[in-house]
Amino acid sequence: MHGLGELEAAVMNVLWQEQQPLKVREVLDLLETGKKLAYTTVMTVLDNLHRKGWVTRELEGKAYRYEPALSRAEAAARTVRDVLASSGDPEAVLMHFAQSATERESELLRQALPRKKRSSAS
């Protein structure tokens, strides 16, 4: 995901896959990074993700349980929005995307745009 480091993205993937709030130890046990990570490293990453608004947390006893603040699809959409905003020419980026879109992507966009027009008119 745009704006996330490699370890942050790996932690988010664990949280999205599990679809339930997890403690630091549970995240650590499920992480597959190819490296041995310290508990405190994962705790720091989760704290940073909380500070950045990527995860929410709730205290359970002495430990927090973490869960994504938004779905994977919502996070991807936010990333696209960030890329468009930082591009300097969002119209050109959208035009290039539209020209390179697959038939399936084009169909999904055609289906979504009429809904956008209806909800904007309300």
TrEMBL record:
Keywords: DNA-binding, Transcription, Transcription regulation. This is Predicted transcriptional regulator. It comes from the Bacteria. The keyword ATP-binding does not apply. Belongs to the BlaI transcriptional regulatory family. One of its GO terms (molecular function) is DNA binding. GO terms for biological process: negative regulation of DNA-templated transcription. The lineage of its organism: Bacteria, Bacillati, Actinomycetota, Actinomycetes, Pseudonocardiales. Pfam families: Penicillinase_R (PF03965).
